[in-house]
Amino acid sequence: MGSRAGRAAEAANDAASRVCDAGPGTAGDISAEGITTDITADVAVIGGGVIGHGIAFEASRAGRSVVLIDDAPGSGASWAAAGMLAPVSELHYQEEQLLELMLESSRLWPGFAAEVDAGAGMDAGAGGTECRAGTGYLTTPTLAVGADAADRRALADLREVQQACGLTVEPVTVREARSREPLLSPGISCAFDIPADHQVDPRLLIARLAGVLGTEGGSLIRRRAAGLLWQDGQVAGVRLAGGGFVRAAETVVANGLGAAGLEELPAGLALPLRPVYGDILRLRVPPHLQPLLTATVRGMVRGVPVYIVPRQDGTVVIGATQREDGPSNPHAVSAGGIYQLLRDAQQLVPAVAELELLEATARARPGTPDNAPLLGRVARPGGGDVPGLIIATGFFRHGVLLTPAAAAVCRQLMDGTPDARWAGFRPDRFSRIPDTSGDSPNKEAA
Ligand SMILES: Cc1cc2nc3c(=O)[nH]c(=O)nc-3n(C[C@H](O)[C@H](O)[C@H](O)COP(=O)(O)OP(=O)(O)OC[C@H]3O[C@@H](n4cnc5c(N)ncnc54)[C@H](O)[C@@H]3O)c2cc1C
What we know:
The protein folds into two domains: 1-136 and 198-272 and 368-446, FAD/NAD(P)-binding domain; 142-195 and 274-367, 2-Layer Sandwich (D-Amino Acid Oxidase, Chain A, domain 2). It has nine helices and 22 strands. It has helices spanning 7-14, 50-61, 77-80, 96-119, 149-164, 174-180, 202-215, 335-348, 403-415; strands at residues 28-30, 38-46, 66-69, 84-85, 124-125, 131-132, 137-138, 142-146, 170-172, 190-194, 198-199, 219-221, 225-231, 234-240, 245-253, 274-284, 296-301, 304-310, 315-319, 356-367, 374-376, 389-393. Strands 1, 2, 3, 12, 13, 14, 15, 21 and 22 form a nine-stranded mixed sheet that branches. The two termini are 24 Å apart. Bound molecules: flavin-adenine dinucleotide. Flavin-adenine dinucleotide is lined by residues 46-52, 69-78, 80-84, 224-225, 254-256, 258, 278, 280, 319-320, 363, 365-366, 393, 395-401.
């Protein structure tokens, strides 16, 4: 294994003529043009969303040289995400194993945020709420509120399931909820305190992770990956679109919905990803209404969920719709979706009508058939796993929450010490890997 500023940095130096704008606080940034020679690193990560950045950070922290490959880092689902770290509120029936992973990641979050901030030279903020200004990680609680009697029943039913799983969800009176959050509507039907559901700002998080990677000698290659590079029956790196290779002992496929489109994936591997679109809003709270809220409010309004996440910078995030209608433009924002979000948020917090609308965004979540990630190594025909390859995609609604866990799982796999608890998330669980190795379409390296 090379040092942190090891082979990736050497390769970046070799390619000095191709390096652009590697300013302080950014990952060494290799321009789009003219990578025709090979770059070598311990780890190549395809995809620079929260997941790819988190994995690259963890690998770098473990002393590995890392190259991150993305032509538009941070522009996928991670750009839209509200950043709720909400294992309790996000509990769904029959997703117990996913809950375990979400709880594990929730436990990892404080240390992960601290490590990112330490790497970025930031301090934890002062005050009653633990705040790491660098990533926007906040331990503010969540209030679940219902609009009408049916919403109250639905939230009470959900609480029974949450409690059966050992999760803490405490009912509070509407009066008490309004004394904590005076701008909540007096018309809400119920409120529940969920102290364990926190938040982070995904855009800040990616910026900080990129900065730390840069200072540790990691490189960002602003290019698309075309496919995997094979050599002697194992994955040996990444083939770049337009020419050039990144050679690596470990290649991590972390490019969200784009993973299934990579060429030279292992024989028989199916990555059944589907886009689940979400509209989301960012708004500024005028000074006379600040703070609009101190807790994240997750509402149920006539059976439809809506949330309002207050940020420390005086903005709020209101989200999110969930639709699978497949627009021709994947970033197209739905007018009906925005109407619904504002209408429902305003019913819970009437002052929402007085906010300044800054941004409406839509992105697709990388969904899977069982709503759980595709995370781990892939079986190869004839037995064992494909050496040199890790898949980390399909994080659907939970990618921000699951970033530290995904990073830890990948690190354990690279260290050769996988945690058996997460074997159920293997990315080949929907695949029929051929029994024999003779019919593998995998290609050897050029
Ligand atoms: C509206 C909305 C709200 C959300 N809110 C939350 C929330 O509150 N909490 C939470 O935990 N999760 C939330 N999510 C889910 C979360 O955003 C995703 O699970 C997470 O962002 C997935 O991260 P990722 O890195 O896997 O994928 P992405 O963020 O989609 O990143 C994939 C990256 O891969 C790159 N890429 C694609 N193809 C290639 C290629 N061939 N070569 C190189 N690079 C490539 C893309 O440019 C992109 O940067 C939300 C999602 C949406 C849409």
